[in-house]
Each structure stands twice: as structure tokens, then as C-alpha cells.
Description:
5-stranded antiparallel sheet; single chain; 7 strands; 5 helices; Arc Repressor Mutant, subunit A; two-stranded antiparallel ribbon
Amino acid sequence: MGQKFKHEDDTESDNENYDLTKEEEDIAYLLRYNSGYKEVDINKDDVAYTRGDKMVECLLNSTKYGVSSKQKLFKNRDDAINYCQQFMDKKLYVRVEKKVFRKKDTSDLAEGTKAPKKLKFFISSYKSFEPTSEVYYLWNYNPILFYKKVVGVIIMLGAVGLCLMPLWPAWLKVGCYYFGVGVSCFLGFFIGLYFFQQLILFSVLFVSLGRLRFIFLPNLIAECSFLESFVPLCTYEWRMKKVKKND
């Protein structure tokens, strides 16, 4: 489940048992994935973080537990803040300080291009929950998403079906054969497209002596939808050499 963040003075073990009730699990799942979280790479691990004000808004606007719901578990901001504090005490997330670092030397970037920023988080010594936009919280609690559970069940049923292949009717075997051929052609097309992309990239870099970076279908292997993989069609970036001035 990834690394677990905690305060230096915490002596509890790094186990994943948060001792939650069914209702708390439901609310924690809601808070984890519906509070506008973002992800940051920490030690080669994608870690989610959320702003304090977004977490409170998530609970208050919940259709099941919020102000307008039938249960009205969270009648006001104080109720939501107290519940967030309970989750923080159970180490579902830890309060952190966020700092942004930008690259100082921008001579190798194209004109008008902003320097990429790098986020760093430091464990805060404060253990109280504050519902403000300046305070961030790193998540230790990462429950499995519902769609991943569905995919797991489908894979398991598919494995059982393959074991029963000798009992399949002839029409099903023929259909699976053509389906497999179609999937293989589809994957082969994307693999070929990727090699073509890399060929163009390195060819242009070689001809331009490393000054022009031209990428065909830059989102081809990015984490996006199928249609977004083909948008934009291409991107390019000129890298100017740094000119040293003589004193």
C-alpha cells in the first residue's frame, strides 16, 4: 500500500489496521477520493494529498452524510472538523507543510516557458486539524477503488473460464480466436506507433544537434483517455544553448 507517514514522536507500528467501523470506512473512502486530492511523487511512490478546506467541504456537501442529507451526520463545520480530527488521530493522514521549488537556471527552456516546479512536503509538528487552504495532509489510507475490485472479479472469472476451455462449444472457441487476433493486431498497432514516435524523436534530435525536440503524439502512453492519446498531434521545443559572457 506504499509508505506510511507519521510524526517522529509516534511510537506506533506501521500496520494498516486503522480500526474503523463500517460507517467510518464509508466516510473515509468518500473523503479520500472526493475531496479534490492530488498526487505527488515521493521516493518513487505516488502519494495523495488534500487541502484542509476541501476535506471539510467534501463532508458538508456529502449527499449521504452532509447538511442536506437525511442522516445529517455533519450539521455544521465544527462537526466536520471534529470528524477530520478523529481520522487524523487514527493516522489516516498526517499534516504536512508544502514548499514549492522552481528551477533557477532557465536558459535551456524555450522563451515564454515557465520553469517546472517541484513540490516537497515536510511532516508538521502540529497534530491539530485546520480546515484552511494553506494546510495540506498526506494520505496513509488508500482503500482499493471499487472499479479495481470489479476488474479483479472479472479477471478471476476469466481465469476460471479458461480452465473450463475444453468444455466450451465450438462457436465460442472460434469467437475467442478471432477476438484474440483482433486484440493482438490492436496492440501491435500501438506498439508500432510507439516505435515510430521514438524514431521521429531521435531522428530530429540528431539532425538538429539536440536543439529541436519534436514529439509525435506526446500523449500516446500518458495516463489519459483513448481519444486524448491522439491530442495534440505533435509538440516541439527549441533548446537554445547558453551563451557565456566574457567579463
